[in-house]
Amino acid sequence: MGKYFEGFPKESIDFLWELRMNNxxxxxxxxxDRYETLIKEPMKLFSAEMTERMNDMGMGESFYPAIxxxxxxxxxxxxxxxxxxxxxxxxxxxxxxxxxxxxxYFEVAPEGWSAGMGFYDANAEYMARYRKKLSADTAGLKRxxxxxxxxxxxxxxxxxxxxxxxxxxxxxxxxxxxxxxxLALTSEYRITDSLFDRSILDEVxxxxxxxKPFFMYFKNI
Length: 221
Known about the structure:
By secondary structure, this protein is an alpha+beta fold. It is built from 7 helices and 6 strands. The protein has a 6-stranded antiparallel β-sheet. The radius of gyration is 19 Å and the shape is globular. The chain starts with 10 loop residues before the first helix and ends with a helix. The mean pLDDT is 94.
């Protein structure tokens, strides 16, 4: 693997499928070198270069990559598979944990790759501040809602409250935003030729450029 990102090896998807089907310590130990070459090192190079691009996008933050580890935390999980069958990076900023704020991400899985933006561990207090933000700038929210309708790549991947949090008089097309229990705008998993060369950087960057107004709206919650 060279100094610069050259794409994920085409064998990387096959490796992740194999890992999913053979998720045990014996198999992983025998295939650790393949993991390093096909998954870990390419993601490290991708993350470094994408971070540089994001820091030139004028979002007022200094981003740095937080790359997932191979091992799963199985202490409180019914699924005792020891390894993640995917590799992701979250582009963090500031001093707090990425789980506590709105962040961009990129992920490679057996089904392909995905990218997006959102907050993933939002508690009730955080979501109360989120709804306060919506009510304070409904014009901005309307612009974001209209922007989302101009494309079909990024879609909300959310859970909804059963309790009604929508203020009386809210425009019907904006009501759904108040019912979100979390917010993630994500793309579907897909395998494209771009994953296997440098053009994946351009494709992800274009996606992040599209999501930039959403990030700027939500990042200071």
